[in-house]
Specification:
- The chain is α/β, with parallel strands linked by helices and 384 residues long.
- It has two domains: 2-170 and 367-383, Rossmann fold (3-Layer(aba) Sandwich); 178-365, Rossmann fold, CATH 3.40.50.
- It is built from 14 helices and 13 strands.
- Helix 1 links the parallel strand 1 (6-10) and strand 2 (36-41).
């Protein structure tokens, strides 16, 4: 069966997000397990890393929500499915999922979707648009939180013929491994960021957008300064605003207001995230809306770093509170500041123990090999 399995994954763009890296990892895993692997996408930074000998890339404007382009994509997908004799089509976003739904209906092929987020809806039209993600033969939720969200909001679309299950998203623990970074590289990164190891470094990775909670983070840092005294630490907000210039100006003004200019660095991009984690002492994720999974918390634990995260969404599943990291009340700057102070005051033995437990947690439940193997097994069950 594995030799005949041909899987086409369809995703808007191959960037560095959780859905995109999951698509990338699965594509190569399938190829290495005697399957034919295909990706249809409009582009993205990860394209240059794809092994063209293992994965067939197809450029299509599947990022577009234009109804005409969605219909156009579905027609092209029909030809692709028939030409390559695709067994399974796996959609990872709503707009391409509509194209895939139509194409698989016409070609009578199996359709799989991964529900990656909560997909906000304010009216019935938007909810109907979102519902395409549960109109497949196999619906995969990336966490128990997403599983519950689907059951609560889209249960009427889940017929008895559909299979609906959780497959936790995973990361590559060999890549996010603290033992693989070089000291010379660490020094270079510290220098380029204008930091030294004389003070503890608090890192907050994530794109600059209101729901990621950068404002709460900055307000909490101000409270930490009041408690510990100014210049007690460095902090780094690492991420791109992706064109949200107004929000960037707002949070930078907030940092100036609290006189954090010399302590808080805004870094737009880092090509070596394991290195960014390695030079940091504390990792923070302050989302004020639920993360479907929360890669930052998982990556930090894999790097054996203490993580402080909001007590909502996926973090409740990926972090063992007070053992592999700490949860704080979402949106509460006081709660966050107390956790930051607690971690800054931990002794080395406690930090080491937490790091070890965090790494074990990821290897046991959230590694990419397990994610890919579970998905591969479900593909085979679906065809059988």
């Amino acid at each position: 069966m594995s030799a005949k399995l041909k899987v086409l994954q369809v995703i808007p763009k191959l960037g560095y997000g959780g859905a995109e890296t999951g698509c990338y990892d699965l594509a190569h895993y399938l190829s290495e397990n005697n399957c034919s692997s295909f990706i249809a996408t409009s582009g993205g930074e990860l394209l240059k890393f794809i092994d063209k000998k293992k994965v067939t890339l197809i450029k299509l404007p599947v990022h577009s929500k234009n109804p005409i382009l969605i219909l156009f994509n579905s027609i092209i997908l029909v030809f692709i499915i028939l030409f390559y004799n695709i067994s399974i089509v796996h959609a990872r976003s709503r707009a391409p999922a509509w194209s895939c739904l139509l194409a698989t209906k016409i070609t009578r092929r199996k359709f799989v979707t991964t529900f990656h987020g909560t997909y906000n809806f304010k009216n019935s039209i938007k909810k109907y648009y979102n519902s395409v993600m549960v109109r497949s033969n196999l619906v995969i939720a990336g966490s128990n939180f997403i599983f519950t969200h689907i059951n609560n909001n889209y249960s009427k679309y889940l017929g008895f013929k559909k299979k609906f299950l959780v497959i936790f998203r995973g990361i590559n623990p060999d890549y996010f491994d603290s033992s693989t970074t070089l000291e010379s590289k660490e020094s270079q990164l510290l220098s380029s960021w204008g930091l030294t190891k004389e003070k503890k470094i608090i890192l907050m990775p994530g794109r600059l957008t209101k729901w990621k909670g950068q404002e709460v983070f900055i307000e909490a840092l101000n409270l930490v300064n009041k408690k510990l005294g100014h210049q007690a630490f460095y902090a780094v907000i690492l991420g791109s605003d992706q064109g949200r210039d107004i929000y960037t100006k707002k949070i930078k003004r907030l940092a100036e207001q609290y006189r954090l200019t010399n302590q808080l660095k805004f870094i737009e991009h880092c090509t070596n995230m394991p290195l960014a984690y390695k030079i940091s002492d504390v990792i923070v994720s302050t989302s004020i809306e639920p993360e479907a999974f929360g890669r930052v918390a998982v990556e930090a634990q894999s790097m054996e770093k203490p993580i402080i995260a909001s007590d909502i969404g996926g973090s409740n599943e990926t972090i063992i509170n007070n053992k592999t990291g700490f949860l704080f009340e979402s949106g509460n700057k006081v709660s966050l500041s107390k956790k930051i102070i607690e971690v800054l005051n931990l002794d080395q033995l406690s930090l080491k123990t937490m790091g070890t437990e965090g790494r074990k947690n990821i290897l046991r439940k959230f590694n990419v090999e397990k994610m890919c193997f579970s998905t591969y097994l479900e593909y085979k069950k679906l065809l059988n």
